């Protein structure tokens, strides 16, 4: 197993997602799913593992749809995916040929895919799934669509109405076809795209029939296992060493950061040279403090512009206050702190903002005390250094 | 054709070889030469090659992005990666390589990019007949052609991995619309057979913005500048590559180190400057150097001009100031000179630092900013001084040669070599009127290393100082010189700070049980520091004098011996006498201590009045000084 921050992992190198994939399969037996998570948490790898480990009777299609620019193009991808499984159906083959003859087609290998025009795509999509419904050897059809929010965004730019209709049609298809399941996921939350559509008059709730399942950081044992494997890759003897546990703890068990820490360890002149826990903390600190943002942490601040619009400044004030506190704080205390800068913001808006910040992975509430804190300690340290100019202390250093 | 290109045609074969190295087009050079000239990047090269091979052998895929300014060695690295992976048996059997060597891309859509990849593959795999197949694409609609071209690429790859080596990724992505970028990422995600290894002079929105599809996609490695030791290694390798063993030996000598150190301060770790500079290590190649320099500027200036155009008005103003200032400046200083508030200036500097146009150096609590790329300063400097000499070239000349050597070179030049003559004249003029850049550079590094307590480097630097002929033989000199470095660099330094620094140095040296393990030497360092302070300021503050006397009281038994040594090693001039008077008339001096130096007072009085009779009753070890001082007087 090689260190690979940001790259594609081999299936056998995906650590600690077995339970999640089992849960996903169980859930998909009942309903479609939106897979939610912070960026770089490993959603795509979860999809890859799900695709590999799904029950044998399922037919699973995994596709990254970020490059798709219209509903018609999307329908083409669905037809292209389904074709190998439906080509024994004479009706389906005849249907495709007829459509291609009517509309013209794009040749992909032996298949000529019809070029669905804007007025035809909805009918074509419904017809396609009618064929699926009829196919007796397809008891469960699962589409894993990665980066679907970006696809909807692409379509919105050209034709917002079409994007709204596509979301509605997909929901309707899920209602109509009991054997059909969909998994939506993406780098940006679909709720942000839907919010943009709502600003243009969209009133529906296109995913309220889907279960939201979160890809969380790795549990401690899995995070330690991953760190150990990567340490061994660079020649460390991990027997009796607590380094993997220290790494896992230092970066909140987030696999992407674990890969980054190991990458930084491997880039030292002697990758095998021992590290004390304090050395490790300094190494992590240096990455967090880097002006070059090698761990891609700056986006947490930047995206607040897109996510919270006019409420951005209030949101930053709230986060600044919570980052400055040495421990978790009461919700009202956090709001009161931020209110000092934005006295005109109403209480309900603050509560909604806290809720949004929880949904967007900035904050988490302690289930027992209800107190608010940063979800990721790495982010809290970044926030303190880059926004508040507060030093990140490592034990043994003078304050 | 540029003026430099036309000049290049008229060059001799040796000069052409020099130009060849100077152009330093790594993609055109033999892999063996590139290997021979690789420094610092060996581990990175090995790691990247292993990672690409791992991507080819397994379903894991690693994508790399190397970031560094022009001349830092990106193409050198990519060329070696290309060479090594193309020799690897696994890559040969399971992968295809497309090396996209574009300087400027001119690709604006996903379709054009796929076509460009297909054409690149056609050159290395003509048996696939790709070029002929692409002709049919022109009859299709764009959407259809896009799909067909993608299928064509996937068919050409079959089950193989495609390793794409892309240069100037920023240029490509800046022209590709976001939708096209998404299409590219979609292709890579849907068909995990692609491996991207790319370079960029600076980071750009398409990889840094979280709204972009390639955000977090690459394993990013900033390419570091070369440090002094690496520069020495590089120049030695270049000398050996040119078959010049004598030059290689000189580079490793103390004198060679001193000269290279000064050049290093000028070139700021940019390998391309060193490669060109290497041409000029021998006097015969001077004309080649000048031409090579001008050629390089010819090539790079449009690039930096376009970089400037991308900056906002305020950012441009800041950069222009830094070009003209030729050093690292504080936010306050920059803001004042650019007529902007410090807050605005900080914000703009942050952006300039993020896109790697500027860099910051932390010094105490203050941040200093300077240009990240020395070549940028060089190009803009030339633009600002049309027709006059290139200041960096003049600096290189006066660093590398003595005045007599420059005169001798001048006499060998033809009158029609006006560019070279102009630079030599300017270098001679500069040598006469300003400080030797070699000693300045050494002292700068000495200061840094003393602070770090890196004794080996301190000793090397001390030898270099002696080598350039500016120190006496005494051990204490380098402590004083390191202090002088602070005086040079910090206008508002206090004499107390200098004394504290001297104490730090002596502690470092005591710790290593070397020069200053003897308390005599320690006191000698303290005295010589105090003398340096006096020379600089013409006086010594009350606080410093008090501290000095605490030292003297602590080392009562060794102070006279140390003073004796100082007398032996220094010129007993008016400054020395003034210093001695200041120190020994201080009220902190105890009665007992006043005896310690009373003999030296008598000796100095004798020197001043030239009446040696009183001095004859001094102890024998001090009387010996009379002979020394006599003989010095004779010489003078």
Write a concise synopsis of the structure shown.
The complex is a heterodimer of chains A (399) and B (636). Chain A is an alpha/beta fold and 399 residues long. Chain A is 51% helix and 10% strand.
What would you say this structure looks like, in words?
The complex is a heterodimer of chains A (399) and B (636). Helices cover 51% and strands 10% of the residues of chain A. Chain A has helices at residues 18-28, 43-53, 71-86, 90-103, 121-134, 148-158, 160-176, 190-198, 220-233, 243-250, 255-266, 277-289, 299-302, 304-308, 312-324, 331-339, 347-359, 377-386, and strands spanning 33-36, 58-64, 105-108, 111-114, 140-146, 180-184, 211-214, 363-365, 372-374. In chain A, a hairpin with a 2-residue loop joins strand 3 and strand 4 (111-114). In chain A, helix 6 (148-158) packs across helix 7 and helix 9 runs parallel beside helix 11. Chain B is an alpha/beta fold and 636 residues long. In chain B, the strands form 2 sheets. Chain B has a 5-stranded parallel sheet with strand order 2-3-4-1-5. In chain B, strand 7 (358-363) and strand 8 form a beta hairpin. Chains A and B meet through strand 3 and helix 11 of A and helix 4, helix 9, helix 11, strand 5 and helix 20 of B.
């Amino acid at each position: 197993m090689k260190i690979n921050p940001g790259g594609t992992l081999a299936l056998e190198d995906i650590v600690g997602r077995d339970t999640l994939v089992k849960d996903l399969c169980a859930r998909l037996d009942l309903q479609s799913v939106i897979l939610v998570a912070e960026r770089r948490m490993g959603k795509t790898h979860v999809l890859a593992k799900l695709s590999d480990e799904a029950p044998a009777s399922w037919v699973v299609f995994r596709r990254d749809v970020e490059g798709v620019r219209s509903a018609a193009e999307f329908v083409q991808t669905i037809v292209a995916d389904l074709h190998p499984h439906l080509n024994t159906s004479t009706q389906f083959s005849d249907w495709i040929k007829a459509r291609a003859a009517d509309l013209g087609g794009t040749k992909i290998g032996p298949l000529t895919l019809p070029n669905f025009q804007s007025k035809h795509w909805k009918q074509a999509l419904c017809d396609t799934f009618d064929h699926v419904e009829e196919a007796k050897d397809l008891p469960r059809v699962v589409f894993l669509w990665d980066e679907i929010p970006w696809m909807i965004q692409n379509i919105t730019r050209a034709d917002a109405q079409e994007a709204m209709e596509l979301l509605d049609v997909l929901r309707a298809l899920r209602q109509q076809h009991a054997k059909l399941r969909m998994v939506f996921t993406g780098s940006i939350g679909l709720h942000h795209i839907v919010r943009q559509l709502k600003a243009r008059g969209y009133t529906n709730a296109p995913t309220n029939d889907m279960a939201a399942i979160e890809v969380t950081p790795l549990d401690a044992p899995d995070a330690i296992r991953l760190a150990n494997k990567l340490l061994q890759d660079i020649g460390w003897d991990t027997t009796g060493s607590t380094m993997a546990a220290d790494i896992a703890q230092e970066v909140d068990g987030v696999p992407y950061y674990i890969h980054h820490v190991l990458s930084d360890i491997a880039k030292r002149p002697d990758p095998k040279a021992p590290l004390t826990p304090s050395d490790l903390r300094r190494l992590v600190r240096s990455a967090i403090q880097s002006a070059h943002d090698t761990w891609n942490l700056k986006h947490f601040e930047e995206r607040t512009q897109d996510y919270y619009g006019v409420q951005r400044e209030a949101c930053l004030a709230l986060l600044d206050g919570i980052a400055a506190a040495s421990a978790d704080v009461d919700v009202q205390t956090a709001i009161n702190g931020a209110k000092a800068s934005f006295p005109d913001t109403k209480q309900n808006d603050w509560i909604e903002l806290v809720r949004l910040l929880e949904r967007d992975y900035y904050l988490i509430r302690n289930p027992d005390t209800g107190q608010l804190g940063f979800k990721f300690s790495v982010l809290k340290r970044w926030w303190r250094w880059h926004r508040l100019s507060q030093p990140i202390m490592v034990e043994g250093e003078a304050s | 054709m540029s003026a430099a290109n036309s000049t290049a045609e008229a060059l001799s074969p040796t000069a052409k070889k020099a130009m060849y190295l100077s152009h330093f087009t790594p993609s055109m050079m033999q892999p063996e030469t590139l290997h021979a000239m690789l420094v610092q990047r060996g581990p990175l090269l090995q790691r990247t090659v292993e990672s690409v091979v791992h991507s080819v052998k397994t379903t894991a895929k690693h994508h790399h992005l190397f970031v560094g300014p022009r001349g830092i060695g990106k193409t050198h690295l990519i060329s070696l990666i290309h060479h090594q992976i193309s020799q690897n048996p696994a890559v040969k059997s399971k992968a295809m390589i497309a090396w996209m060597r574009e300087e400027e891309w001119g690709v604006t859509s996903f379709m054009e990019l796929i076509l460009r990849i297909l054409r690149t593959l056609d050159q290395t795999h003509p048996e696939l007949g790709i070029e002929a197949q692409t002709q049919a694409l022109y009859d299709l609609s764009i959407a259809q052609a896009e799909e067909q071209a993608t299928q064509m690429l996937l068919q050409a790859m079959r089950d193989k991995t495609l390793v794409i080596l892309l240069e100037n990724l920023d240029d490509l992505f800046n022209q590709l619309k976001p939708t096209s970028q998404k299409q590219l990422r979609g292709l890579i995600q849907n068909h995990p057979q692609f491996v991207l290894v790319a370079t960029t002079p600076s980071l750009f929105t398409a990889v840094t913005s979280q709204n972009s599809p390639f955000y977090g996609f690459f394993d990013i490695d900033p390419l570091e500048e070369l440090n002094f030791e690496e520069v020495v290694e590089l120049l030695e390798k270049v000398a050996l590559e040119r078959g010049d063993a004598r030059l290689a030996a000189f580079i490793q000598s103390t004198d060679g180190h001193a000269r290279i150190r000064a050049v290093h301060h000028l070139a700021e770790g940019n390998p391309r400057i060193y490669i060109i500079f290497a041409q000029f290590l021998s006097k015969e190649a001077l004309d080649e150097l000048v031409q090579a320099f001008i050629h390089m500027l010819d090539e790079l200036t449009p690039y930096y001009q376009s970089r400037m155009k991308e900056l906002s008005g305020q950012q441009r103003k800041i950069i222009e100031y830094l070009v003209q200032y030729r050093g690292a400046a504080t936010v306050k200083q920059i803001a004042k000179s650019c007529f902007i508030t410090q807050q605005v200036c900080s914000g703009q500097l942050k952006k300039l630092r993020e896109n790697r146009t500027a860099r910051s150096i932390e010094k105490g609590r203050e941040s200093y900013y300077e240009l990240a790329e020395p070549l940028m300063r060089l190009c803009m400097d030339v633009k600002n001084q049309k027709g006059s000499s290139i200041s960096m070239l003049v600096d290189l000349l006066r660093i590398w040669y003595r005045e007599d050597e420059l005169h001798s070179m001048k006499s060998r030049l033809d009158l029609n070599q006006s560019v070279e003559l102009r630079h030599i004249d300017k270098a001679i003029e500069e040598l006469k009127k300003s400080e030797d850049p070699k000693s300045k550079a050494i002292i700068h590094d000495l200061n840094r290393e003393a602070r770090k307590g890196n004794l080996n480097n301190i000793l090397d630097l001390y030898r270099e100082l002696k080598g350039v002929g500016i120190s006496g033989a005494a051990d204490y000199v380098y402590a004083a010189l390191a202090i002088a470095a602070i005086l040079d660099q910090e206008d508002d330094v206090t004499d107390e700070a200098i004394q504290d620094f001297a104490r730090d140095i002596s502690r470092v040296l005591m710790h290593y049980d070397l020069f200053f393990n003897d308390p005599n030497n320690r006191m000698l360092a303290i005295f010589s520091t105090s003398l340096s302070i006096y020379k600089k300021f013409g006086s010594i503050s009350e606080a410093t004098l008090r501290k000095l006397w605490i030292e003297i009281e602590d080392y009562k038994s060794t102070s006279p011996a140390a003073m004796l040594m100082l007398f032996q090693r220094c010129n007993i001039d008016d400054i020395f006498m003034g210093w001695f008077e200041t120190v020994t008339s201080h009220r902190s001096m105890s009665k007992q201590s006043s005896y310690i130096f009373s003999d030296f007072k008598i000796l100095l009085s004798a020197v001043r009045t030239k009446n040696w009779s009183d001095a004859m009753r001094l102890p024998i070890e001090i009387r010996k000084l009379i002979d020394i001082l006599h003989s010095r007087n004779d010489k003078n």
